[in-house]
Amino acid sequence: MSTRFRIPDQLLLLVICAFFFFWRLAAFGLIGADEPRYAQIAREMLDRRDWITPTLGGTAWLEKPPLYYWQAMVAYRLFGVSDWAARLPSAFDALVLVLAVYWFLRRFRLGVELDGAIMLASCAGVVGYARAASMDMALAMAFGAAMLAWIAWHETTGHKYLAGFYFLLACGMLAKGPVAPFLAFLTIAIFAALQKRLEILIGTLWPPGIAVFLAIVLPWYIAVQLRNPQFFRVFILEHNLARFGTNLYHHPEPFWYYVPVTLLGWMPWTVFAVTALIWAVRKIRSESSDHLATFLLTWIAVVIAFFSVSTSKLPGYILPAIPAGAVLIALWLRERVGRRPSAVLAALHALIGAALIFPALTMPSILEDGILRNRAAVVPIAATLAVSLVLFLLFWRAGWRTLRVVTLVPAIAVVALVLRIGSRPLDDKMSARSVDYALSQYNPHRLPVAVFLVPRETEFGLAFYRNQVIPRYESGQVPDGEHLLVAAQGYPQGVSKAAGRRALFLQNLAQQKLDLFYVPAK
After folding, report:
1. According to DSSP H, which parts of 286-321 are helical?
2. What's the 3-state SS for 35-52?
3. What is the pTM of this model?
């Protein structure tokens, strides 16, 4: 697995992370409802110099803990408010997680530390959420690093690692709530049962570590509850228990949903992940069982099973399982160095490695036209098959020493294609940044903006890009003064009726099915 030209491992890893996590971080605007909403909450907290109560539009927003908001506030203070700064915390957290994997493997499984870290850095799930302004990467970083710290303690009995475990669990608690400590102790308990050693669990309950956890977590939780008596009901009862046990927030998916999502999250290393999982299961049954492989397998199984039981499912929930898969692949790979990969394994890995080239090339056509026409698919299919063939021949003939090249080259190409040719269509189709740009053409005096029958993604996006509360006509929030209106397309008469005066049509944004209007003062 050595490279022909020796580049220091740490430098190579930093360059790879810089590309996958930070390059063109704001190539397209904030998308969905969560990104702009969380970004705006952090801005409001910074404007009020309030590190306790998250607010949106001046109203307490108590669905999530503050770690992402705090990180974004620091980024805003250092670099100014922008969508780039809003995504910076997730990119930074992804870098920390990759470095934690590198440190762990270098310390405890020397020889595959760079491979394991590179695998994690290039996993589709990590790359995707490293570029999103959300809590998912903060939780994955805190939980993943905590579990690595715990297994480091298990191997050495060094209490500094156990202290790190509790510190990182506290960060996870501040990132997304009690799910981090719950999953951690559930994983450890099952692992202890598999090892038939109850003392593992008892030793984990270390009073100084628990004190560290409480000292970090309690100040914010107590302060926010004292300032907002509804916090316990909103956060614990509604956004933890009700979200887990009911479909209150309308994210239903089948029980098996997280199996394909996790496999996609491990791309382009999916074939190796599946092979490593099978290898780890067989290891448990053999006399040469590796306790680390057993722990990683337990970690993955607990995360997938827990969120599979949940009624509400979103792709980002599974992110804490991705680091365990990367470390497990590295362990499996450690036993394969020196052997020639089988033709079947090489072919499957080459096909998976090249598979994302097809959606990367067809993304602009799909976003702009809504469908993929047969002629537009010919070149992407041919390119995917050609790259797959080249990767297969290189990997199969030259062996494991070419693994980084045959995997990273197409992965880098996919990210570059998405950010180069897909960013503009993504902006036009899915981000309120393009809507704000269109509004600015008619808005020299920075008029307020209202919305009518638009998705909440548009409402929250405009709230961030315009830094204002966005009133909704259908909720009776019709401004008396002159303003601009963003409405669902096709309702010109309904707009004037809802406004209570004649609205002047300005422009249609066909990609987002929106119409822009100027509404004079009453």
Report:
1. 291-309
2. HHHHHHHHHHHHHHCCCC
3. 0.94
